[in-house]
Amino acid sequence: MTRINTNVPSLVASRILGRNTDSLNTALERLSTGLRINRGKDDPAGLIASETLRGEITAIGAAIENARRADNIISVAEGGLQEVSALLIELESLVDKTANEAGLSDDEVAANQLQVDSILESLNRIATSTEFQGKKLLNGELDYTTSGVTTGATASAISDLRINSARIPNNGYRTVVVEVTGSAQLAALVYSGTTTGPGTTTLQIAGRYGTEQLSFASASPVADVIAAVNASKSLTGVSARLSGSRLIFNSTEYGQDAFVSVQAVSGTFTVTGGDTPTMDRGRNVAAKINGVQAVANGLDLSVRTTAFSADMTLTAAFGTTVGRTKTFYVTGGGADFSIAPTLGINSLASLGIQSVSTGTLGKSTVGFLQSIGTGQVNQLSSGNFETAQRVLREAASQVSAMRGRLGAFQKNTLASAISSLQVALENTTAAESAIRDADFAHETSQLTRSQILVQSSFSVLQLANAAPRNVLALLGG
Questions:
Q1: Where residue 155 falls among pLDDT bands split at 50, 70, 90?
Q2: CB contact at 8 A, 181 and 325
Q3: In the prediction, which pLDDT does 476 show?
Q4: CATH topology classification for 186-281
């Protein structure tokens, strides 16, 4: 080449030097930041995928923290319920001891009543003071709110309702429809005579609660039998009534667990209408809740679905009439925990935590815990020890069920969610790392290569720039 205005080899060498310098700078940047993608031009598609994965990683991390916070809250609530259970056991001990009436003086009964009142006060204090960062946990604040349960033409359909969980759309509500498909029944036996038989008749009356033997003189009218049976119905669970000219023995409760047994220990007394000649059992109500067959025990119903879980007690008028329906609405409330990366109704784990105050523990068909306080219908001096014990056992059953439900929520929902989210976090982080992070082995080899090429490019450029000076030899000639 003998041209000097345009040094083409120099331009080529300069271009290649620039390219090698860019490669060297890229390798240095990746080694210094540890990232393969530092800006969009490094890998546009990879950057998009990486940013999406980074958002998912953040959401998964937040979900894990939410689940752990939920576990802490439930642990605080369960701690309060544990003490409530202990106090209920102490209450039953006091009731059981006071039932030994002949062995206690009036002063001892009064002293026991003072302890009962103190425990009831403690229960109410626990209900109002158990909290997490100012949020009350056991006073009903985290229970669900409803509408339509006690209004309308079928207001008397449900006597007790406890909603365990419900998925409620944002700014919406959940409709609940209860339909009776099979009538609940009392156990029933029929005696068609108007008097007992000749001679002394001794009847053994047995029911869910116990057994009593009642004796009647020869040809006693059935009115005497009715009076005697009803006088001890709280002990046996069997009542009696006159229907036309027939004497009807009924269980005091509905359901398969309730039964009536009438046997003549002496004399003649023949009953009919039972499952066996001397015994009959009741029938559980059959019902559907939102189209799902509910589990029934007497008039008590339970339903467990992903969208709605509840326990309820139907009134006798509603539960014994096939075809009747009741519609109500869950309008809000409950404790909602977001434990999934993608927000929405499906990410929420919801549960209701009912109040454990003395006015709510118990059941309307049996009584509530406050009824054993001073001045109430089941105070110790009233002698209603059987009823008081049933109230206490119903309250203890409710608290135990709540503790079990919270424990299951911690173990089967929160713990499993945390475990699965941690695995998802590991895998998502690994995927994001594979796309975005620099491979140091590869980048150091690229760095060495680029360093060598840059040095050689400088040498070549120096030679290319020196070549035009050879033209001077022509001018000198």
A1: low
A2: no
A3: 64
A4: Alpha-Beta Plaits (3.30.70)
